[in-house]
Amino acid sequence: MTEEKDRKESEKAEKKPASGESDVPRFRPIVPSGGKRFWRAMTKRPQASHLWVGVLLALLGFGAVLQVRGDEEDALSHARRDELLQIYDGLTREADRLEDEIQELRRDRDDLASSAGDESVALEQARERLRQAEIIAGTVEVSGPGIQLTISDPDNQVSDTTLYNAIYELRSAGAEAIQIEGQGNDTAVRIVAASYFLPADGGVEVSGVELEPPYVITAIGNQENLEESMRFPQGVMSKVELADGEATVTQFSELTVDTLHEVTEPEHARPAPEGE
């Protein structure tokens, strides 16, 4: 009986939990994630200790900035002359670049401010260029101060070369519009860049039109300059007199060149392609 009792007690001892252990299940707390802990830290009401830590960090950051600046100033004070010149050149180039940007921005601002009137200004400029082109081409009447050169040629001895020289001298003196009239047959021709002079029976041929003397050349421009161009020694008036003709110059404060040139389409010439 004693052995049976000892065996049962031994079995009970094997089934009994070790010392300090319990049959009750252990409590295992749930560990929050990193995101939750960060949110709690940010939304948690700060304590006095936290404020002091923030102030201390700010002071440390300010001190670090001062230290960096001090190191830069110390580096400049110990830099060599060539290094300082390089630094100066770099700063100068940067300042110039910024100044250029400022000027460009100002121009853009001015362009935007005046953009409302740009179209009307461009249109007026185009009209002015058209008027100038029409005067040069001889397709419009022109009025203004100028002179009239009257050449009498009773013996028909004044050559086409003398008349051409008169036109050349007037152009050189600044004539802006010229016409030549043959009063003998009441015919006039507008002088343009393509005008030419040829001899003809009883007169001269100007751009395919025959004119008979006396001739009247009307030129608009500075009156004094135009008259002087006709009177210089061995000039137009001298050559007319040598040909037994007579030339007179009269100044006018207002003249009109009303003979028009008929523009024809060029047969061979055409605008060159852009970029060539």
Describe this structure in words.
This protein is an alpha+beta fold. Among the domains are: 52-108; 141-257, Alpha-Beta Plaits (2-Layer Sandwich). Helix content is 50%, strand content 18%. It has 8 helices and 8 strands; from the N terminus they run H-H-H-H-H-E-H-E-E-E-E-E-E-H-H-E. A 5-stranded antiparallel beta sheet has the order 3-2-7-1-8. The radius of gyration is 53 Å and the shape is elongated. It starts with a helix and ends in a 19-residue tail after the last strand. Mean pLDDT is 79; it is low at 18-22.
| CATH first level of the domain at 141-257 | Alpha Beta
CATH architecture of the domain at 141-257: 2-Layer Sandwich
- Helix percent reads 40-55%
Low-confidence stretches: 18-22
